[in-house]
Amino acid sequence: MSVEVRVAGLGQSTTEVTSAAAAAKEAGEAFVAALLREEEAGSITASFESLDAASSELEEADDRISAFQEDVLVKEAFTKGTDLREYAKQIANELDAVEQEHVLGCMMGSQSSFLVHMTEQIFLDVKQCQPFVDLHRQIQACDEILQRMESLMHGFQSDLGNISAEIQILQDQSQSMNVRLKNRTSMQTILNSVLDGVLVSPDLIRKISEGEVNEFFLQHLADLNKKMAYVKSQQGQHIRAFKDVGPELERLRLRAAEKSKEFLIKRIESLRAPNTNIAIIQQNIFLKYKELFWFLAERYSDVAMEVHNLYVNTVGNYFLVSFEKYMKSLQKLQTVIADKSDLIASEESGKRGLPGLPGIFGAKQALKDKTNVFSLGERLNVTTTADPGIILTHIAEEKNIKFPFEAIYKSLSRLLMDNASSEYLFDTDFFSPPRGKNAKLTKDGNAGALTFSEVFEPTLRLIQAFNKTTIDASFDGVGILLCIRLNMLNLRIMQARRIPCLESFMNATNMLLWPRFQAIMDMHIDSLKKASPRSLLPSKDVHPHYITRRYAEFSASILTLNQGYDDALLINSLFRLRTEVEHLLMRMSGEFPDPKQKLVFLINNLDLVVSILSEHSTSSFEQEKSHFTTLLESKTNEYVDEELKPYFANLMRFVSTAESGLDLASLQEENFERIAAEFNQNWKGALGNINQSVMQSFANFQNGARILHHALTQLVLYYKRFMSLWDKRFLNRKPKVQPIGLQSVMVEIKKFRSSFQ
């Protein structure tokens, strides 16, 4: 019964399965036939095109199979994972078994109608199962086709594997060839280097041995030097060619050294000719053939040292003789600004004699000329002008022009700086051969610096001795300070040039200048301490003293040269000098018996200092101007009181007493009236006397006007205070004396003020 049921269920889709299998078979046969044709033709590309066509037919068969799978029983078989081929075989076996049972039953003689009916039914079922058998056969045919396709694919895979192996072999061969090429290239480079290093051409031998020293000789000399350097660097290599070429290179080395030495010595000896411009020869000849000395320094050090020593002696002697001659000429052009008697407190009258007679009977310098010792004036131009200021001695001698020491110092130092800079640059370029492997451009600057020191050492000692002698003999403080500033400017110029060769020399010069300047300042201070007021004021003149003018101009010079430097040493020295000047003025004022004359003397001298300092507006003057202005105002206030006392002493004393805190009622009215009557009687005459006294006492018109204005203002203030007290005391009473109105006094005072406007 189970067989019948399964056969009955499968009968519904027999036609569809048969048609799908037939389509699949046809597609497979077509694909195989196409592959076979393509295989016979040998065209792989056409085979793949047939494969694409067969694939499309297989896709169509697959669509039919998908439709067949919609059957219930087939879907159930697929769901359970039943293999259709096995399932078909099972049905066939069951049919055979049933058939045999029916046949046996018939043979046994069962003639019942039931069995006949069953047999007929079985035969009918067998006929209905025939499509499944056909389906099984078609599936087997498809399997055979797919197996042939699989075999063909395996063949393709094998062919591709062979091709990949061949490609790998070609790649390995290419890498091997590349390695061999690199090795051969490297070997070629090494061989070329060896050949270049050991091959000495006949042309090289001829040019070195017989050729003239010129630019071509330098090229061959460089080639020879490279070959020698290469052979020396390969000493550890056992190459026979190096042993063969060594003696030849040695002979060429000796010959090249001999010719280089002869050439350089001749050029150095030519520098000894008179009026030779060494700088031009250095630039045009020596630097052009500096490789000759470099070759000697590297390959024949003894000869290089011989050439070096000859150059040092020749050029060093040239500079020594030239500067010695120049300094002797400068000494003839120097004018002495000051000597040991030209100090601030030196007595001017002691140096005057008979006009026109020299020595002890004649005047050395007039007073107006002596101020040049302390004033700066146009001497400042030596530090501000961009002109190097080099003095042409022969022209100056013809025109009989004289120069102060700072001008001579500037000319000498700038000439030294220019020559030293040129020589230093040449020495560092010529005597500093390249160092390092293969003549790299890095140089040893110490060799050039040492050569410069050897060349210029005698000249620098000579100049330093000249400076020391001149500086130690100088008493010109302004000139020494100018030289200090010039030396600082020279240092900055050399630093801007980045040439350090004169730094130690300039520092040593500074050590000469500063102590001498301090010594001159000490001399001025000592002269002020030792000065005799009686000798300085023989005529008891209240006008400004020449010592004050000297001090004012000297301090103005120092402050001008200290602008932008703020040297503590200068500020301290100037403070000491100012203190001694103030002490001397106080001692000199003691020579006047009248207190008012003392104040007039001090005011005139302080006003002179303030006037000279006020001519300058730089910041370095502010402290000094403030100090002397304050001192001048203090002495002016004292003078005003002294000027008013002879005429208004009672008024001033009465006002001070009345304002001291006493009760006005306690002051007697008679005292108010007496002071008022006295003022009414004398005030106009007193104003005239005060005006005349101020006009006679102060030479400076502006100073006199300022002091008169101050005195009259003080008088107005005193009288205004008196009138205020008067109004309070006589508030309810009428006084016996009516004081002059304040407005009348001010109108009268304006008359005197207008004369100074």
Multimerization state: single chain
What characterizes the major β-sheet?
Answer: none
Alpha carbon gap, first and last residue: 158 Å
Global Rg: 64 Å
Secondary structure: elements and pairs:
Blueprint lengths: L1 H9 L3 H28 L2 H25 L3 H9 L3 H24 L5 H86 L3 H9 L4 H19 L6 H30 L8 H9 L3 H10 L1 H33 L33 H4 L10 H4 L8 H7 L5 H26 L14 H28 L4 H21 L5 H28 L2 H4 L9 H16 L6 H22 L5 H20 L7 H37 L10 H29 L3 H29 L12 H13 L3
Helix pairs in contact: 2-3, 2-6, 5-6, 6-8, 8-9, 8-11, 9-11, 9-12, 10-16, 11-12, 12-15, 12-17, 16-17, 16-18, 17-19, 18-19, 18-21, 19-22, 21-22, 21-23, 23-24, 24-25, 24-26, 25-26, 25-27, 26-27
Keywords:
27 helices; 757 residues; single chain; 76% helix; disordered N terminus; mainly alpha
What does this structure look like?
This protein is mainly alpha-helical. The protein is built from 27 helices and no strands. It starts with a helix and ends with a helix. The relative contact order is 0.04. The model is unreliable at 1-18, 38-48, 350-371 and 436-442 (pLDDT under 50).
Provide a quick synopsis of the model:
The chain is mainly α and 757 residues long. The chain has helices at residues 2-10, 14-41, 44-68, 72-80, 84-107, 113-198, 202-210, 215-233, 240-269, 278-286, 290-299, 301-333, 367-370, 381-384, 393-399, 405-430, 445-472, 477-497, 503-530, 533-536, 546-561, 568-589, 595-614, 622-658, 669-697, 701-729, 742-754.
